[in-house]
Amino acid sequence: MTAAVFEARPRKARRVAVAAAVLLVAVFAVVGTLLRRTPTGVYFRLSDQVAMVVLGLLLAGAALLFARPRVRAGAEGVEVRNLIGTRTLPWELVLRVSFPEGAPWARLEIPDDEYIAVMAIQSADGRKAVQDIRALREVHAQHTAPRGTPGGDRCRLRPPDLLPPEPRGANHDRLDLNES
To answer: Global pTM?
Structure first.
């Protein structure tokens, strides 16, 4: 994907993943070095110590997978990278960008009542998640045609003047930003 207009990554999940990875490596390195000197009578060899350190590195790598999510959006479409896979979709396939109430992360709704999780925009990030979902929706709206226009047989966010008025005291920072 070229020339990303919008890019987002989770903030809190990255911090926790990096801290967990560092902690895992440190704990397993200490355990590996102290493994030979146990009062249990079991004899550990150098290979056992090395295996403990390698196990710590493997677990740290698994923890770092949670720092991987990213979403990029541009004129061509949207690229969603989650823990393991990466998917690139043209805007023609994205019906709606939503963040259902109570959901841990945003999602892209695609045809046939399916969706793709966007783990880069997480509810744990609070205001940053609100800003990111709004920005992604803007990019989506810029690159899709509204219903009823040529080539615009897909769903599109309604302009603010067509939305019903919000009640007094409405919380504008709610993560449930589904505008339908």
So the answer is: 0.69
